[in-house]
Amino acid sequence: MGSSMPLPTRIRRRMVGRTAAAVFLLAPFLGTAAHPQPPRKVIIDQDASGPGGSDMLAILALVNSPHADVLGITVLTGNAWRDEEVLHALRLLEIIGRTDIPVVPGATFPLVSSREYIAKWETLYGKIAYQGAWNHAKGHAVHGPAEIPPMAEGAPTTKASSEDAPHFLVRLARQYPHQITIYAAGPMTDLALAIALEPHFAELTKELIVMGGSIHPQTNDPEFGLNPRREFNFWMDPEASRAVLHARWPRLVLTTVDISVKTNMEKSLIAQIAKSARPSAQYAARYAETGYLWDELAAAAWLDPSLITKWERLYVDVNVDHGAGYGGTLVWVPGQQPGLGEQLVEVQKDLDKGKFYREFVDLLTGPTPARIPERSDELAYPGTHLYDQREIRDTSTMRVYGARRGAPQWKESAQVFSNLSRHDKLKVLAPGALARTGRD
Q: Which end of the chain is least crowded, N or C, by CB within 10 Å?
């Protein structure tokens, strides 16, 4: 039975002080519970080979997360051709009921490299086993950029945006300055073109999350055992990769081959996902493929950085000298970099694999957030563009995008770009290099 006698003054003051200190320490957590943080804005820039596979399941994980507000999915050629991938992305959004998220077509071809050029390169330096859309297809024969093979999941009825990816990226970055994460898990072409349109594009974002690069993966996989620095996303468009890695992002995070090969889409994971009757889970279980969880890890680690148990800060670049190392990843520890515009990157080194698998399964089997009816007006494409000197600083580089009213002609851009002089290419890819040489 408690006493009603008052506590001594010294004891009462001590208790009040400790209580105040506890409230102060817990305030951030109490505030979070009372006022939950809004979902983080993200644009997914992704090759969307489908159905299923690493590309589509990473998209699905981000769209399904209650902590991500996906503003759009920009799609470019990578593991498959762009036009085919756009339809797979549209169909996925139909299946899970998120057709409010725009799918925006991006680049069909790299800035400089091409399938024909690499074929000649191989006569000097040897064969490259995996070249994405150029030499690989699943469920059908290898085909050209305009052909659409039958879609196992069914063809979509919704349509892609009439805007192009670089303009979409720039427009949204201006609309939400310093708020948008760019999640990039394909070749870097769309981002390089956005940087060319708006030199401050990278600085207008919140951060860039990239699945790309390979440093020294510990694996018996023959694709990386003898060529440890070659990774597909950076390799397919080396000039674009270099431009992106030299841009001034507020933060740049890299999920490399080195950490990705520590993961695997095991059959047990697919079986766990299949237990859910939700459309997202049924899609994932039906079309999932065994293999590394490349893009899924990059997505999940952005949603929950505690999945990564070891990090390293390195300067990262891509080899563009067109020799034997063309497209390979270059890295330096701080203090050893050349100092030619390389940026410091947060590189993931190791992960809590069990935790990653649990959270990944939860993302695919959980409820898909409700569509946002007002999003269509908020993200609406305002119409055709009239190119001006604010967007493209030099008339010679306007040819890359199509100097006329209307959307850029992406199928012509790569060939036009390859015909530009080295000086004009530098104006698009590395304007800082011209300043260093004193030429413009």
A: N
